[in-house]
Amino acid sequence: MRIAYFDCFSGISGDMCLGALVDAGVPLQKLREGLNTLDMVSYEIRRRKVKRGGISATRIEVIVKKDEPTRRLADISTIIEDSDLPENIKKRGLGIFRRLFQAERKVHGGRLKDLHLHELSATDCIVDIIGTLICLDILGIKEVISSPLNLGGGTVSSEHGLLPVPAPATSQLLKGKPVFSTGIQKELTTPTGAAIITETATSFGHFPEMTLDTTGIGAGGYALKE
After folding, report:
1. InterPro entries from the entry (predicted)?
2. pLDDT tens track for 201-215
3. Spatial contact of 172 and 106, defined as CB atoms under 8 Å apart
4. Cis upstream peptide for 178 (omega within 30°)
5. What is the C-alpha to C-alpha distance for residues 179 and 163, in angstroms, rounded to an integer?
């Protein structure tokens, strides 16, 4: 059985997931082909090599080329359900988005059907989440295991003003999961990353005994000082 171990020593975000999986061997064209079955506004996926802590990593960026409408859970569900993606990817993707929206509801209140994702581009979020699931499928991953999650610290800007790190939605998503902070004053684990890993990982802990086949390193937007 093929297992993916996510070492989240520097947190986790949607773009870090995509970068790590592409770095581990997923052909970018295969990822694009899967995502092209989703009916979304025009966007572009860019891949580039960067260095983080002196180590080469893959950074994936999603560039949205035109204004997009506000997307609610029902809108995103329709985009996923109407695609030609395998049913297992659709089911898991819908599960991740439900987690995200439920966390937002607990933080901001209101009815689930009326909420939109704060601070997040819907297109970017869909690409990160569904793209990660497509990559796991391409690699033949049957189980995901994660390390404890580095949350970071400090504050992060939002449309509601400054929020503490971890952001309230992230805290909701990570209830019952092992987390820590090394004191870095940046948001290292994002709501999207938290939703992805809590939906896909079957357990959290130390590196399991396995035979290493391939590795990948994904980079986020921060280049932390060494």
Report:
1. Ni_insertion
2. 999 999 999 999 999
3. yes
4. no
5. 18
